[in-house]
Amino acid sequence: MRRLVEGVGVPRLLVGLFLLILFALAGLERLPVKMLISSALVRIGMNGVLVLAMLPSIRAGLGLNFGLPLGVIAGIVGMLVSLELRLSGLAGFFFALLVGVLLSLPVGYAYGLLLNRVKGEEMMVGTYTGFSAVAGMCMFWLLAPFKNPEMIWVVGGKGLRVTIPIGHRFGGVLDNLGKFSIGGVEVPTGLLLFFAFLCVLVHLFSFTRTGIAMKAAGMNPAFARASGVNVEKMRILGATLSTVLGAVGIAVYAQSLGFVQLYLAPLMMAFPAVAAVLLGGASTSRATVFNAVAGVTLFQTLLTISLPVTQSVIGGDISEVAKLIISNGMILYALTRKEA
Amino acid sequence: MKVWRKIRESLSSNPMPLVFGILCLFGVVVSGKSWSFLLQEVITRLARNWILVLSLLVPISAGLGLNFSMVLGAMAAQTGIIVMTHLKVPGMLGFLGALTVSFPIAVALGLVAGNIMNRAKGREMIAGMMLGFFMNGVYQLVFLFMVGTVIPMKNPDLMLPQGFGLRNTVELKYMKYALDNLLTVSLSGLVIPVATFVLVGLVCLGLNRLYRTKLGQDFRAVGQDMHVASVAGIDVNKTRLLAVVIATVLASLGQLVFLQNIGTLNTYNSHEQVATFAIASLLLGGATVTRATVGQALAGTFLFHLLFIVSPYAGQRLMGSPQVGEYFRVFVAYGIIAAALVVHAWETHRSVLSAAKRGLPEREADRAG
Questions:
Q1: Which residue, A60, A112, A171, A176, is the most exposed by fewest CB within 10 angstroms?
Q2: A95 within a domain of the structure (yes/no)
Q3: Does B140 sit within 8 Å of A135, measured CB to CB?
């Protein structure tokens, strides 16, 4: 029993148990469980890439990437360019991805250079670099020279809207690609396949020469340096890859949501992603693709199902509060563990 | 003359106040607002924010860095205010009552925060920040769901129509200006809340007194080097714990003063930005992650709030949109914290490197990293 607890980990056991109770309650309350599972699948896919973005950063020894909003902003700009050109469908989505990735490369590189100068304080510096980037971009959104009337305020004719609907452009292009339903559960095939594809890429990368070097640089910088690995370069690579995945992640997120959210929306985006990968069993210095997948599955299923269940049992929406407590509690737990 | 030299020396070592002083001056000129309007606004804001900023000093001296967990103190204060507003206790009595209720809560939360930071040595700031976010969730759980269900309470003025949970905004009609109105002086059109400034003065005096006691010396010793301090017979963990408790209690006092002036409690938002704005204020005054004085706290708050007041007007004049100015001040708040953290990490990183080059023992490097 004890070995089971240690193997699975206390947080996962608790959340798993909680999840079981919620499912049992959902059954008792005669809630549409199949529909809940469908929407959980969508939320897993839509948040998955953002969680996956934590891996390169953790592996390269930069810790949890609280600077995720940097990549998110690059991804948002990519989508805005695609919208400005009035592209739609898969072409629009992939064009947005392309621009987002191209923008996130220099951003991630600069972020890596910064993090190399602040060793030991990466997480705190990352958090506030992300915060200031989000606040700084708020001014950009107000003044940016975008012209498409779908994106700017109707009144005044200037400044981007807070939320931009993209339903008719590339909203849901991945979700609806090869969508099928099995026993009443709808499966967003394209979305899940896209997520799985990126998971495989990240996993395969860890077996390449560079991937192994990066892991060594993160685990034991002194040893890595002695065996001829350029630790600084690996850290920059980790930051860059993480930022690129953040840019891809927000595009996937937005196409599922059907909206691009601007202004202060990206401010807190790093925290649920960080919490999910930790919930999946990662620590501040170790993480695998399995951790990311397991974490996002547990976390998002929990959030999806807690909303309707608590609503029908106690008559209030406790899911936002549960999200705050679980995600921030999880991060706090990881930060205070002796191992790290 | 001596004062001038001192000011010049401190400015050359940290140009932050000078740069932002010039920026403020520019903003004041561009905003086109009258001096008397700006002065009145600044006085009001200084009265309500100074204690919050001062509460950051003790943890910095004890080597805990910027105290992002001061949000916990604010939550304690809000709990006290909610209780007193529920009991309809008016004026100064309500203020003192809220102080009495919030004090034990602040002490308890301070103990929690201190213990967490002792478990997260070397990453106190991020742990403190996450603790703030976490407790925000707990706070919402208590006041949104437990009040009226687990905690028996009935008060349609404060509570949501569904029978449990507090309203988003609570009018503090019994406690508004309780402290400010105790003694106000009108000086050529400016209204000055003297009683509040007296309280601020007392806090400053208390802090200066504290630094001269044995405990104050211990804070500094622990802040400088935990190992040396513990060899010298100081209980490092207990000292750090005490520093956080004092900070949390002061923060709760600060939030009480803040809210009695504002007059409305945004039940679920009033505390969220407390730490960001207070920390940004302190840093604008030229403080760093490891060094901060009462003077820097007082001056920084002045600069930050002057900038806060003028930026929407300046945004309106320069860019034709007040919103640009509003986002600009948020950007300054976050940016200044990011810059201070970068400078701090950069310096410790560099000292580690030079220590390694000089062949100092590993321990030195460990502590700094």
A1: A176
A2: yes
A3: no
- B8 close to A (CB below 8 A): no
- β partners of residue A33: none
Tokens 């919030």, residue located:
B102
3-state secondary structure of A180: strand
Nearest Cα to Cα of residue B121 among B366, B355, B353, B344: B366
The reply to whether ipTM tops 0.90 is no
Which of B130, B133, B324 lies closest to A142 in CB terms?
Answer: B324
Interface list for B 299-338 with A (CB within 8 A):
319, 321, 323-324, 327-328, 330-331, 333-335, 337-338
Q: How far is CA B163 from the centre of its chain?
A: 34
Between β-strands B264-266 and A259-261, what pairing exists: parallel, antiparallel or unpaired?
unpaired
CATH architecture designation of domain B2-368: Orthogonal Bundle (1.10)
CA dihedral over B248, B254, B257, B263, signed as positive or negative: negative
Rounded to a whole number of angstroms, the CA Rg of chain B reads 21
**Does the beta carbon of B162 lie under 8 angstroms from any beta carbon of chain A?**
yes
Q: How far apart are CA B288 and CA A221, in angstroms?
A: 29
Separation between Cα atoms, residue A149 and residue A157, nearest integer Å: 8
B317-326: list long-range contacts, CB under 8 Å, 24+ apart.
Answer: B317/B30, B317/B31, B317/B32, B318/B30, B319/A142, B319/A143, B321/A142, B321/A159, B323/A142, B323/A159, B324/A139, B324/A142, B324/A143
Contacts with A197 (C-beta within 8 Å, 6 or more apart), sequence order: none
pLDDT in tens, B14-52: 777 888 888 888 888 888 888 888 999 999 999 999 999
Helix/strand/coil for B121 = coil
Asked if residue A135 belongs to a domain, the reply is: yes
- The answer, for B10 touching chain A at a CB cutoff of 8 Å, is no
Residue-level length of chain B: 369
DSSP three-state, residue B153: coil
| List of chain A residues whose C-beta atoms are within 8 Å of the C-beta of residue B126 | 66, 123-124, 127, 335
**Count of domains forming chain A:** 1
Segments of chain B scoring below 50 in pLDDT: 361-369
Cβ distance A324 to B133 less than 8 Å, yes or no, reads yes
Q: How many residues in total does chain A contain? A: 340
Instruction: Report yes or no: B197 at the A interface, CB cutoff 8 Å.
Output: no
| B142: closest chain A residue by CA | A321
H or E segment to which residue B171 belongs: strand B169-171
CB B188 within 8 A of CB B203: no
B38: three-class secondary structure by DSSP: helix
B162 vs A contacts (CB less than 8 Å):
315-316
> CA-CA distance, B220 to A175, in Å (whole number)?
58
Q: How many CA atoms lie within 13 A of A60 on its CB side?
A: 28
Q: What distance in Å separates residue A269's CA from the closest CA in chain B?
A: 13
Domain definitions of chain B by residue range: 2-368
Find the domain containing A253 and state its range: 34-267
Residue of A nearest to B140 (CA): A321
Residue ranges of chain A whose pLDDT lies below 50: 340
* pLDDT digits 0-9 by tens, A14-57: 888 888 888 888 888 888 888 888 999 999 999 999 999 999 99
Q: Is A131 on the interface with B (CB under 8 A)?
A: yes
Can you give the pLDDT at residue B366?
44
**SS3 (DSSP) at B190:** strand
Distance CA B148, CA B142 (A): 10
SS3 label, residue A153: coil
- Looking up tokens 């996956």 gives A52
Q: What is the pLDDT of residues A79-88, one digit of tens each?
A: 999 999 888 8
The amino acid at residue A67 is: G
Chain A residues with CB-CB distance to B116 below 8 A = 332, 336
Give the integer Cα–Cα distance in Å for A277 and A285: 12
Residue A210 in any domain: the answer is: yes
In sequence order, the β-bridge partners of residue A70 are none
Q: Report which residue type is found at B102.
A: S
Would A292 be classed as within a structural domain?
A: no
